Amino acid sequence: MDTRFDVELIAVTKRYGDAVAVDDISLRIPKNSYCCLLGPSGCGKTSTLRMIAGHETISDGDILINGGNVTELAPAQRGTAMMFQNYALFPHLNRLDNVAFSLKMRGVPKAERHRQAQEFLALVHMEEFATRLPAQLSGGQQQRVALARALITKPSVLLLDEPLSALDPFLRVRMREELKRLQRELGISFIHVTHSQEEAMALADLMVVMEDGRIRQSGSPREVFERPSSAFIARFIGGHNVLPWQNGMIAVRADHCRIGDTSDGPRLTGRIAVVEYQGPIVRVALATDTGVEAAALLPDHLFYRHPVEPGDLVTITWPQAARMSSMHKDGERFRLRSAIANRTL
Amino acid sequence: MSVRSAATLLQTIPSSRRRIALPLRRLRPGLVSWLQVAPLALILLVLFALPTLLFLVVSFFDYDRTGIYPAFMLDNCRELLTTPTTLRVYLSSLKFAAIVRAITLFLGFDISYFLVFHIRSATLRAVLFLLCAIPFWTSGIIRTIAWIPFLGRNGAFNQLLMGLHITTKPLEFLLFSDFAVIITYVHLFTLLMIGPIANSLSKIDPALMEAARDSGASRWQTMVNVVIPLSKTGIALGSILVFTQVMGDYFVVKQMSGGQSASIVSALSTEIQAMQYPPAAANAMILVIFVAILVAGMMRVVDVRKELVK
Asked: Which of residues 120-179 of B touch A (CB under 8 A)?
C-alpha cells in the first residue's frame, strides 16, 4: 500500500446523462499538502471535490485515500470532512451543537462532546458566544464554525468548496492565512476548490488547473505561473500576455515587459488603451494595429521616469532571457523553448 | 407607433406619474399605512369580529319556546358546562382530532418529503402537487358521501373482498363507525398537512442533509436531528389546521358515524333547529375559546409568524 499520497484519483470520470462533467482525470496529492483545484465555473472542479467527499457517485475510475480505495464508501467512512460553500450550518442548532453534531451522531455523551466542541471552537478562535444560532453570526464567524464542525471529525483530508468566496476581500485574505496555518498545524491535506487564481497561488502547494472536465496543468504555483502549458492556462492565471509569434503563440509575463525601445530583443508596437495606477505598479495596456492586446506591469518608479498616456504609440519589449513558451496553433499547446532559442526570434 | 408619438408618450409618463404621486406624498406616512391595512381590517371586523361579538352577547340572553329576550344571565353557559353530554362530545371530538392528526401528519410528512426531496423535476412536482389538490375541487360534502357506496355493506370494497375470497361475509365496521369517520377525515384533511409541511421542507437547504451525512449521520438520524426540527413550524401549522377542522366538523360525524358518535357542532345544530339561539351561541363561544386555547398551546411550540413572513 503506497501511502506517500493522501489522495489519489485514478481515471475518475463523472457523467450526468450524456454530459461529461469530469473526464478521466488522474491526480496524486502528496501527504500534508495544500491542493487547490482551480478553474472557471463549469470546469468540473466542484464535481471532483464532491466525488472525493462521497457526495457524488463516481461514474468511472477509483479514488484512494491514504492508499485505501474509498470509491464505494459513505462520506463519513472516508476520513474526509467537507466544508460546504455556504457553510451549511444547521440553523436550529447553536454553534456548540453544530460543532458537536458528528459526535452526537456517534453517541458521545453530551458533556464530553461539548467539551471537545469547545476545544475545536478555540482552534478557530470562536470560543465565545457558543450558544448563538448561526443566523446571529457574521459570515466570517459562520465560516469558522463550519471549519470547526468539519475538523472535529479528525479528517485526514479536509475538503473546502469555495470557502472564501462569500467573504469580503479584507476578510478573505485573513481567512486565507488562517486556512494555511490550520493546514500546517494539523498536518493534514486540504483540497480547496476556487475560481480565484490569486487565492490558489497564495495557498497551494499543488495547484491543479481544470478546464472542460480535464486537468490542464498541475504543479506548484510557481511552476504553473512560470511555465503555463497552454494559452488557456496563461490567460486564466493572469499576468501574462498571450501573443501570436511567428508560427505559434507565446506567453510573456506582463511584469517582464518594459516600455521603450532599449534593446534589440523581441518587441511589440501599439497604441496605449489604458493606464491604470495600482499602487506599487502601473498597468499599461496597449493594442496593435492588428488587434493584438498586451499589457506591461511597470514598477511605479520606472513608469514615472517616462510617463505615457492613453493614445501614445509605444513599443514594449521583453528581455531575451525571459522564459518564453511557444504554442502551436494546432491544439493550442505550448512548448517550452530555452532562453537561447529565443534569441532567434 | 411613430418615433415622435413614442417620444411624446415618454414625456407624458413622468408627468402623469407625478400627478398620482403628489397627493400621496402629501399624506402623512402613518395614514398611508392605515389605508393599506384598511381593507383587510374592514373584512375581519365586519365578517368576523362583529358576528363573534353578537354570539357573545346572545349567549347571555334568555329564551323560551317563542322567542329570545335580552338579558345577562350565565345559565346557558352553566347548563352547558355541567351536562355530562358536553364532556362526552368534547372527548369524542378530541379523540377524533388526535387520531386524525396523527394519521394525516404521518401521511402528510411522507408525501411532502417525497415531493420536495425525491422529485427532481419542478414540472413533475407541480403536477403531483396539483394531483393532491384535485380532490379539493369538489365539495367536502360530496367527498364525504362518496365513501358511502364504497364502504357500505354491499359497497365496492366489501364486494371486492368477497370477490377475491378474502372474506366470506361483508365487513360491518367499514361504514357508520368511527373507522368510517376517521377515514373520511383523513381523506378530507391530509392536504391541509401537506401544504404547510411541504412549505417548511422546501426551505431546507439540501446541503444541510449532505452536511449531516458528512458528519456520519444515518438517514434516520438526519431525519430526527435535522429535517424534523426544521419542519417543526410546518408540522404545527398543519396540525392546527387539521385540529380546528375536526373540532368544528358536523357533517362527517353525522353522515359517517351512523348516529353512534356525536360532535360538538351537532349538539349546537340541534339547538339551532329548536330555535334555542342563546344556548347555541353559548355552545359556539365555548368551542371557540376551547379551540383558541388549543391553538395557543401549539403556537407556543413554534413561531408561526416567522414561517408566514419568510
From this structure: none
